[in-house]
Write a structure and sequence with these properties.
287 residues, alpha/beta, Rossmann fold, 2 domains, six-stranded mixed sheet, three-stranded antiparallel sheet, 9 helices, 24% strand
Protein backbone atom coordinates (compact mmCIF):
# COMPACT_ATOMS: atom_id res chain seq x y z
CA UNK A 1 0.00 0.00 0.00
CA UNK A 2 1.19 3.55 0.72
CA UNK A 3 4.14 2.58 2.92
CA UNK A 4 5.41 -0.30 0.79
CA UNK A 5 9.04 0.13 -0.31
CA UNK A 6 8.01 -0.17 -3.98
CA UNK A 7 5.48 2.67 -3.61
CA UNK A 8 7.96 4.88 -1.75
CA UNK A 9 10.51 4.29 -4.54
CA UNK A 10 7.94 5.68 -6.98
CA UNK A 11 7.49 8.73 -4.75
CA UNK A 12 11.23 9.24 -4.53
CA UNK A 13 11.46 9.11 -8.33
CA UNK A 14 8.73 11.75 -8.59
CA UNK A 15 10.55 13.91 -6.04
CA UNK A 16 13.74 13.76 -8.12
CA UNK A 17 11.72 14.83 -11.16
CA UNK A 18 10.23 17.70 -9.14
CA UNK A 19 13.70 18.92 -8.16
CA UNK A 20 14.83 18.77 -11.77
CA UNK A 21 11.78 20.45 -13.28
CA UNK A 22 10.60 22.85 -10.58
CA UNK A 23 13.85 23.70 -8.89
CA UNK A 24 12.75 22.47 -5.47
CA UNK A 25 9.22 23.72 -4.79
CA UNK A 26 5.74 22.43 -5.63
CA UNK A 27 4.68 26.08 -5.64
CA UNK A 28 6.55 26.52 -8.91
CA UNK A 29 5.96 29.96 -10.43
CA UNK A 30 3.74 31.32 -7.66
CA UNK A 31 5.49 34.58 -6.83
CA UNK A 32 4.37 37.21 -4.36
CA UNK A 33 2.89 40.44 -5.70
CA UNK A 34 4.28 42.31 -2.70
CA UNK A 35 7.43 44.35 -3.07
CA UNK A 36 10.16 44.84 -0.50
CA UNK A 37 13.43 43.17 0.43
CA UNK A 38 14.19 40.05 -1.60
CA UNK A 39 16.39 38.76 -4.39
CA UNK A 40 14.20 39.09 -7.52
CA UNK A 41 13.98 42.60 -8.99
CA UNK A 42 10.40 43.90 -9.28
CA UNK A 43 10.30 47.70 -9.75
CA UNK A 44 11.80 51.13 -8.98
CA UNK A 45 10.55 53.79 -6.54
CA UNK A 46 11.64 57.24 -5.43
CA UNK A 47 13.89 57.29 -2.36
CA UNK A 48 12.16 58.23 0.90
CA UNK A 49 13.72 58.98 4.28
CA UNK A 50 14.19 55.69 6.09
CA UNK A 51 14.68 53.55 2.97
CA UNK A 52 17.68 51.22 3.00
CA UNK A 53 20.47 53.21 1.31
CA UNK A 54 21.90 49.92 0.03
CA UNK A 55 18.93 49.62 -2.34
CA UNK A 56 19.71 52.93 -4.07
CA UNK A 57 20.58 52.53 -7.75
CA UNK A 58 23.74 54.65 -7.92
CA UNK A 59 24.01 54.31 -11.70
CA UNK A 60 20.71 56.16 -12.11
CA UNK A 61 21.90 58.79 -9.61
CA UNK A 62 25.12 59.28 -11.58
CA UNK A 63 23.15 59.90 -14.79
CA UNK A 64 20.15 61.86 -13.54
CA UNK A 65 21.09 62.97 -10.01
CA UNK A 66 17.91 61.38 -8.65
CA UNK A 67 17.75 58.96 -5.74
CA UNK A 68 15.89 55.86 -6.91
CA UNK A 69 15.64 52.62 -4.94
CA UNK A 70 15.19 49.11 -6.29
CA UNK A 71 12.24 47.03 -5.12
CA UNK A 72 12.34 43.25 -5.01
CA UNK A 73 9.76 40.49 -4.74
CA UNK A 74 9.27 39.29 -1.20
CA UNK A 75 9.85 35.57 -0.75
CA UNK A 76 6.86 34.35 1.26
CA UNK A 77 6.58 31.06 3.13
CA UNK A 78 3.38 29.63 1.65
CA UNK A 79 1.65 26.58 3.11
CA UNK A 80 0.39 23.82 0.84
CA UNK A 81 -3.02 22.59 1.99
CA UNK A 82 -4.38 19.25 0.78
CA UNK A 83 -8.18 18.80 0.95
CA UNK A 84 -8.88 15.13 0.25
CA UNK A 85 -12.50 14.10 -0.41
CA UNK A 86 -13.06 11.39 2.19
CA UNK A 87 -16.78 10.83 1.57
CA UNK A 88 -18.21 7.40 0.75
CA UNK A 89 -18.66 8.35 -2.91
CA UNK A 90 -14.87 8.06 -3.16
CA UNK A 91 -14.88 4.43 -2.03
CA UNK A 92 -14.00 2.99 -5.46
CA UNK A 93 -11.50 5.79 -6.09
CA UNK A 94 -10.10 5.88 -2.58
CA UNK A 95 -6.74 4.28 -3.28
CA UNK A 96 -6.19 6.38 -6.40
CA UNK A 97 -7.02 9.61 -4.55
CA UNK A 98 -4.76 8.72 -1.61
CA UNK A 99 -1.90 7.86 -3.95
CA UNK A 100 -2.08 11.31 -5.52
CA UNK A 101 -2.35 12.98 -2.11
CA UNK A 102 0.61 10.91 -0.90
CA UNK A 103 2.72 11.91 -3.89
CA UNK A 104 1.96 15.63 -3.61
CA UNK A 105 2.51 15.63 0.15
CA UNK A 106 5.72 13.58 -0.09
CA UNK A 107 7.22 15.84 -2.75
CA UNK A 108 6.23 19.01 -0.90
CA UNK A 109 7.66 17.82 2.43
CA UNK A 110 10.90 16.76 0.77
CA UNK A 111 11.07 20.15 -0.97
CA UNK A 112 10.77 21.69 2.52
CA UNK A 113 7.40 23.27 1.76
CA UNK A 114 5.02 23.60 4.70
CA UNK A 115 2.19 21.06 4.34
CA UNK A 116 -1.20 20.59 6.03
CA UNK A 117 -3.87 18.00 5.05
CA UNK A 118 -7.57 17.45 5.81
CA UNK A 119 -10.17 14.87 4.88
CA UNK A 120 -13.49 16.36 3.75
CA UNK A 121 -16.97 14.80 3.83
CA UNK A 122 -19.92 16.06 5.89
CA UNK A 123 -17.27 17.76 8.04
CA UNK A 124 -13.53 18.31 8.10
CA UNK A 125 -11.06 15.85 9.63
CA UNK A 126 -7.34 16.55 10.13
CA UNK A 127 -4.93 14.19 8.37
CA UNK A 128 -1.68 16.10 8.86
CA UNK A 129 -1.07 19.04 11.16
CA UNK A 130 1.10 21.78 9.71
CA UNK A 131 4.45 20.11 9.10
CA UNK A 132 7.70 20.55 7.25
CA UNK A 133 10.64 18.31 6.40
CA UNK A 134 11.43 14.82 5.19
CA UNK A 135 10.87 13.34 8.64
CA UNK A 136 7.12 14.05 8.41
CA UNK A 137 6.66 12.17 5.14
CA UNK A 138 6.41 8.63 6.56
CA UNK A 139 3.90 9.56 9.31
CA UNK A 140 1.80 11.26 6.62
CA UNK A 141 1.88 8.11 4.46
CA UNK A 142 0.94 5.97 7.45
CA UNK A 143 -2.02 8.23 8.24
CA UNK A 144 -3.24 8.05 4.65
CA UNK A 145 -2.82 4.28 4.58
CA UNK A 146 -5.01 3.86 7.67
CA UNK A 147 -7.63 6.43 6.62
CA UNK A 148 -11.05 5.32 5.39
CA UNK A 149 -14.08 7.09 3.96
CA UNK A 150 -16.56 8.52 6.46
CA UNK A 151 -19.60 10.73 6.93
CA UNK A 152 -23.26 10.87 5.97
CA UNK A 153 -22.90 12.80 2.75
CA UNK A 154 -20.66 15.52 1.36
CA UNK A 155 -20.92 19.23 2.14
CA UNK A 156 -18.04 20.83 0.29
CA UNK A 157 -19.12 24.37 1.10
CA UNK A 158 -19.34 23.65 4.85
CA UNK A 159 -15.90 22.01 4.74
CA UNK A 160 -14.44 25.07 3.02
CA UNK A 161 -15.99 27.34 5.65
CA UNK A 162 -14.56 25.19 8.44
CA UNK A 163 -11.18 25.05 6.73
CA UNK A 164 -11.00 28.84 6.52
CA UNK A 165 -12.02 29.16 10.17
CA UNK A 166 -9.11 26.90 11.13
CA UNK A 167 -6.56 28.12 8.59
CA UNK A 168 -6.73 31.85 7.97
CA UNK A 169 -3.28 32.03 6.47
CA UNK A 170 -3.28 32.09 2.68
CA UNK A 171 -1.76 29.17 0.85
CA UNK A 172 -2.01 26.78 -2.05
CA UNK A 173 -5.13 24.61 -1.62
CA UNK A 174 -5.15 21.30 -3.53
CA UNK A 175 -8.62 19.72 -3.70
CA UNK A 176 -8.63 16.00 -4.61
CA UNK A 177 -12.14 14.72 -5.29
CA UNK A 178 -14.62 13.38 -7.82
CA UNK A 179 -16.42 16.75 -7.36
CA UNK A 180 -19.80 14.98 -7.46
CA UNK A 181 -21.10 17.06 -4.56
CA UNK A 182 -24.90 17.05 -4.04
CA UNK A 183 -24.76 20.75 -3.09
CA UNK A 184 -22.37 21.63 -5.91
CA UNK A 185 -18.82 22.95 -5.91
CA UNK A 186 -19.33 26.59 -6.97
CA UNK A 187 -19.74 28.09 -3.49
CA UNK A 188 -16.81 26.21 -1.99
CA UNK A 189 -14.42 27.18 -4.79
CA UNK A 190 -15.69 30.77 -4.74
CA UNK A 191 -15.10 30.95 -0.99
CA UNK A 192 -11.52 29.66 -1.23
CA UNK A 193 -10.79 32.01 -4.11
CA UNK A 194 -12.35 34.99 -2.31
CA UNK A 195 -10.02 34.42 0.64
CA UNK A 196 -7.04 34.77 -1.73
CA UNK A 197 -5.92 31.15 -1.67
CA UNK A 198 -4.32 29.72 -4.78
CA UNK A 199 -6.49 26.72 -5.65
CA UNK A 200 -5.77 23.61 -7.71
CA UNK A 201 -8.43 20.95 -8.40
CA UNK A 202 -7.51 17.35 -9.08
CA UNK A 203 -10.66 15.55 -10.21
CA UNK A 204 -10.62 11.76 -10.23
CA UNK A 205 -13.56 9.64 -11.33
CA UNK A 206 -14.03 6.01 -12.34
CA UNK A 207 -15.87 4.40 -15.24
CA UNK A 208 -19.12 3.98 -13.27
CA UNK A 209 -19.22 7.72 -12.61
CA UNK A 210 -19.22 8.60 -16.30
CA UNK A 211 -20.91 5.61 -17.97
CA UNK A 212 -24.16 3.90 -16.98
CA UNK A 213 -24.29 0.17 -17.76
CA UNK A 214 -27.51 -0.52 -15.83
CA UNK A 215 -30.78 -1.52 -17.47
CA UNK A 216 -34.22 -2.78 -16.53
CA UNK A 217 -35.99 -2.65 -13.19
CA UNK A 218 -33.41 -2.26 -10.42
CA UNK A 219 -33.08 -0.95 -6.88
CA UNK A 220 -30.47 1.78 -6.42
CA UNK A 221 -28.86 2.76 -3.13
CA UNK A 222 -27.18 6.09 -2.46
CA UNK A 223 -23.67 5.22 -1.31
CA UNK A 224 -23.56 8.23 1.03
CA UNK A 225 -27.09 8.63 2.39
CA UNK A 226 -28.02 4.92 2.26
CA UNK A 227 -31.39 5.79 0.72
CA UNK A 228 -32.87 3.16 -1.61
CA UNK A 229 -35.13 3.67 -4.59
CA UNK A 230 -36.56 1.38 -7.27
CA UNK A 231 -36.18 2.69 -10.81
CA UNK A 232 -36.58 1.51 -14.39
CA UNK A 233 -33.51 2.18 -16.50
CA UNK A 234 -34.14 2.45 -20.25
CA UNK A 235 -31.73 3.64 -22.98
CA UNK A 236 -33.25 7.10 -22.51
CA UNK A 237 -32.30 7.22 -18.80
CA UNK A 238 -28.79 5.99 -19.68
CA UNK A 239 -28.40 8.78 -22.22
CA UNK A 240 -29.74 11.45 -19.86
CA UNK A 241 -27.44 10.29 -17.05
CA UNK A 242 -24.30 10.34 -19.20
CA UNK A 243 -25.20 13.75 -20.63
CA UNK A 244 -25.76 15.10 -17.11
CA UNK A 245 -22.34 13.90 -15.93
CA UNK A 246 -20.68 15.40 -19.01
CA UNK A 247 -22.40 18.73 -18.36
CA UNK A 248 -21.48 18.60 -14.66
CA UNK A 249 -17.80 18.06 -15.43
CA UNK A 250 -17.91 20.81 -18.07
CA UNK A 251 -19.36 23.20 -15.47
CA UNK A 252 -16.44 22.37 -13.13
CA UNK A 253 -14.00 23.17 -15.91
CA UNK A 254 -15.78 26.46 -16.60
CA UNK A 255 -15.90 27.42 -12.89
CA UNK A 256 -12.16 26.83 -12.58
CA UNK A 257 -11.39 28.72 -15.77
CA UNK A 258 -13.39 31.77 -14.66
CA UNK A 259 -11.51 31.98 -11.37
CA UNK A 260 -8.05 31.13 -12.67
CA UNK A 261 -8.06 27.82 -10.78
CA UNK A 262 -5.87 24.98 -12.03
CA UNK A 263 -7.69 21.76 -12.94
CA UNK A 264 -6.74 18.25 -14.01
CA UNK A 265 -9.56 15.77 -14.67
CA UNK A 266 -8.59 12.12 -14.76
CA UNK A 267 -9.86 8.60 -14.05
CA UNK A 268 -8.69 5.70 -11.94
CA UNK A 269 -7.53 4.00 -15.13
CA UNK A 270 -4.61 6.44 -15.34
CA UNK A 271 -1.67 5.55 -13.09
CA UNK A 272 -1.16 8.11 -10.33
CA UNK A 273 2.51 8.62 -11.21
CA UNK A 274 1.58 9.57 -14.79
CA UNK A 275 -0.75 12.25 -13.43
CA UNK A 276 1.86 13.67 -11.05
CA UNK A 277 4.50 13.63 -13.80
CA UNK A 278 2.11 15.59 -16.02
CA UNK A 279 1.65 18.17 -13.27
CA UNK A 280 5.38 18.51 -12.74
CA UNK A 281 6.30 18.73 -16.42
CA UNK A 282 3.77 21.45 -17.11
CA UNK A 283 5.34 23.61 -14.40
CA UNK A 284 3.75 22.56 -11.13
CA UNK A 285 0.43 23.39 -9.53
CA UNK A 286 -0.51 26.37 -11.67
CA UNK A 287 -3.74 27.40 -13.39
Amino acid sequence: MLTDPAFIRKLESLYRLARKVLGGSMQADRKSTKKGAGITFADYAEYSVGDDFRSIDWRIYARFEELIVKLFEIDEDTTIYILLDQSHSMRHKWLHARQMAAALGYISLHCLDQVCAYGAADKLRPLLATARGRGKALPFLQTLEQADTFGEGTDFTACCLEFQARRRRRGLVIVISDFLFPGGFEEGLRYLHWHKHDVFCLQTQDATDRVCDLKGDIELECIEAGRRERVTVTPKEVRLYEEAVTQWNASLKDACRRRGIGLISTTTEVEFEDIIQSILRRGGLVA
